[in-house]
C-alpha cells in the first residue's frame, strides 16, 4: 500500500504539472523557457511512472514543441537575412508542428489522469 500511495503522489504531481503546461501551451501555442524546462523534467519523471503507450504520446508532444520552437527560430533567422521564402517555409513548418501538438495535448492529459485514477488500479 505504501508503494501505491507513493505512486499516486508522484503521478498526481505529474498530472498537475501537465495541466499547467497544457494550459500554457493552449494559451499561446508556445512555452516560455521555464515552462519548456519543466516539460522536459516532467517527461523524464513520467518515463518511470506510466506505461509505454502514454510515454510515447508524451514524447510526441515534447518532440512537437521542440520542432515548433526550432522551426520558428529558424524562420526568424531567415527573415532577418531577408530570405523571406525560406523564412515562410520554416514558419509554415512551425505552424504544422504546433497544430500536431494542439491535437496531442488534450488526449495526453486524459491518459495521464486515467492512469493516475485509483479506481483504475483495482
Protein topology:
Blueprint: H1 2-28, H2 33-46, H3 52-80, H4 84-116
Q: Mind describing the biggest β-sheet? A: none
Assembly form of the protein: single chain
Number of β-strand runs: 0
- DSSP strand content: under 5%
Which term fits the overall shape?
elongated
Low-confidence runs of at least 5 consecutive residues: none
User: How far apart are the first and last residues' alpha carbons, in Å?
Assistant: 12 Å
Count up the helices: 4
The gyration radius over C-alpha positions equals 17 Å
Global structural class: mainly alpha
- Kindly state the mean pLDDT as a whole number? 93
Helix content: over 70%
- Helix-strand pattern, N to C? HHHH
Describe the structure.
The chain is mainly alpha-helical. Helices cover 84% and strands 0% of the residues. The protein contains 4 helices and no strands. It has helices at residues 2-28, 33-46, 52-80, 84-116. Helix 1 packs antiparallel against helix 2 (33-46) and helix 2 runs antiparallel to helix 3 (52-80). The longest helix is centred in the last third of the chain and has 33 residues, at 84-116.
Amino acid at each position: 500500500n505504501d508503494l501505491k500511495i507513493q505512486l499516486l503522489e508522484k503521478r498526481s504531481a505529474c498530472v498537475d504539472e501537465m495541466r499547467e503546461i497544457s494550459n500554457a501551451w493552449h494559451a499561446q501555442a508556445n512555452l516560455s523557457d521555464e515552462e519548456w524546462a519543466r516539460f522536459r523534467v516532467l517527461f523524464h519523471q513520467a518515463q518511470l511512472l506510466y506505461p509505454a503507450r502514454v510515454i510515447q504520446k508524451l514524447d510526441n508532444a515534447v518532440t512537437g514543441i521542440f520542432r515548433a520552437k526550432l522551426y520558428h527560430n529558424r524562420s526568424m533567422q531567415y527573415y532577418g537575412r531577408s530570405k523571406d521564402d525560406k523564412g515562410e517555409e520554416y514558419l509554415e513548418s512551425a505552424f504544422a508542428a504546433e497544430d500536431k501538438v494542439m491535437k496531442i495535448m488534450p488526449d495526453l492529459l486524459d491518459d495521464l489522469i486515467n492512469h493516475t485514477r485509483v479506481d483504475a488500479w483495482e
